[in-house]
């Protein structure tokens, strides 16, 4: 029983760490072309890094049929847009100050983050 | 294949970084991602470019067009991004000359996009329904068997084999009907995120795995715990798929308003080019094209009438039911319907620039924006799923440690039920669905709401400041009274006065000329016209000496006024401007001019007051006029002699008193006051809407739009609150119940199947409740 309890508590710790504390790598916006794919309930890549002080464009392609994935919101920038199915959609970002800007679907089940550095 | 572009020379980028930055800064906070200055950056779609070598050819053809700074083609997408100030028509011609076809990408056909979306949604719906039937056709009979026989235990070898078969069939259901949950859960897990898929996959996966353990290793679990939960697994998957399908259908209805707006766009236009009439797709209509519209047809793009006259039904855009007369020089708007005559007009705004396209864009954006009330739900949804997972584990541990036998079964059931019943979707959907319907509903009434915040604040307005001129009144002076003296005839007096004033550009003079024209009076000829500064005018018409001006002018010329002085004072007290008119040095009439109150202003103001809103009038006019207008309009409070720059101070004064202030103006000199108010309302004139100038734009001039806007906001906010309350209560009550908090007291533990049904229908309930808003009707009293 002790073992089960320890395993259970470890599982809780693991959930906390995996979903909240672990910071996955950000996809760099380097020379290579980058498209954020919306599929299977996620943005992939979900974390991207963009330079400060420059307007940039981010491209999305939605392959997920769920209506939830249709809307893209970047609340801090007051951006809300519709992502068409299987079509590239370019979202233009203004020149941004350094910081983190979350993007997500209407219900926040699809979540991503733009880090401006 | 495509990119996140910086400004350094990639497709779709801008060279003019400074301009671009300004452009974005300017738009920041309103619309940072939509390009307004289409002249600087145009995107063409190229047809017929089959090989990569075409790229150079097309690019150089475009670069040769005067005004083009750069042209870069993305071969994969068959698009060219052109930077520079060249006319679109020149660009298209250049590409055609090079041997390819091109069209402007900016004018993407919304109608087609919508049709495509509906097709995709339809296909998705069918798939979900198929998955539902597969899951339920296994789950249903299994559950019936379990309920009737109560035999879901695994004790004998025969039972083990039978249940193994069922287990494999259930796996089939998980694969065919539930694969998307598992794939989604796994992908998000890898992404360090969790969503609804995670909960469903974990819940049904746990139930199935436990059941398989029971089948394969019955000895590993206590006797009483040898239950299998295959029926629950199949039914939960089926119900959730069904919920998703029904939600998809219900969601379709939430965007009805935008569909209707998109449907207003004409598909083709009849343009005259090189003396030939051509029917072309509206995306191909260029600026300055001459367009012909026959009776009954839709106006395809915005323009200015150059020939013919007609009446146009603009109700679909402005909510104004009466058709509007249009003649040469008048503007027409895309999406409105030409009723009577045939007209030719010159295209002044095409593609994404038409008022209709901008309205669609604005409504779409507003529909996707969130009012502050939704923020708490957002914060909760961000942590929701992992928290539910933790609760599930904690609940299982609690049952294992303290629960009665069979503790393992209780632990599994409670953990599964917690995972299944929790519904982040209902919480997440609560706000956006209502906003979607509410903003759309407002647009139908001719009220454009900029964003969710404006919507929420509008519902709380306690004081409304109305600008007088152009808001409460028509904004154009009109002749209100002609009081003739002695034997004079009103028509004749008006003819002489109008003839006299026909050379003047003074607003009061124009009102008299207009009044004569309205009555079909032909004007004569003026001679010896003389303006007497500060007094009035003098001239000769038909050999008579006419004098038109104030009392002082009459007294100076020793013209007897008699009791007309009192009559003039009475008129002045009614906020009218009386002027004396003398013919051959004898008083002929008093003509009074005033800016009349709009027909429905009084009723609309009453409606606002009836809703408990403190209505305050603001004007630059003198106290007497202000008082008269306020009294007539039924307004108790007013500020008179307010300079334009002081308007915003008055807004602040009310705010200091603790009021949530709405400010309504025509947007011309009211911009600072509109900006400082809690909600700024701009009154549009017809379809010529000042979309960017206010939080809420009323497309028709009537003040009823204000009451409508506030009523829609209130209804929407009420709807959001119902949804949020429902979703909170559902989760707050459902999750602990599922974990088994009631068991020690009442011996109640929730069945996972019921949890699945509750979860599947909770988000459907939210969408359905939001759809109730569609029935909302603004009441004009």
From TrEMBL, chain A:
- Pfam families, A to Z: Cupredoxin_1
Query: Could you name the domain of life of the organism this protein comes from?
Result: Bacteria
UniProt domain EfeO-type cupredoxin-like: residue ranges: 12-116
Residue stretches spanning the membrane: 6-22
Cite the Gene3D superfamilies for this sequence. Cupredoxins - blue copper proteins (2.60.40.420)
Keywords on record: Membrane, Transmembrane, Transmembrane helix
Tell me what this protein is called: Plastocyanin domain-containing protein
Lineage, broadest ranks: Bacteria, Pseudomonadati, Pseudomonadota, Gammaproteobacteria, Oceanospirillales
Automatic annotation (TrEMBL), chain B:
PROSITE patterns for the chain? ATPASE_E1_E2, HMA_2
Stretch list, region Disordered: 1-34
* Cellular component GO terms, alphabetical: plasma membrane
Checking SUPFAM superfamilies in the record gives: Calcium ATPase, transduction domain A (SSF81653), Calcium ATPase, transmembrane domain M (SSF81665), HAD-like (SSF56784), HMA, heavy metal-associated domain (SSF55008)
Instruction: Tell me where it resides.
Output: Cell membrane
Keyword Nucleotide-binding in the entry? The reply is yes
Matching entries from CDD domains are given as: HMA, P-type_ATPase_Cu-like
Q: Which NCBIfam families match?
A: ATPase-IB1_Cu, ATPase-IB_hvy, ATPase_P-type
Please state what the protein is called: Copper-exporting P-type ATPase
| Organism (species) | Alcanivorax nanhaiticus
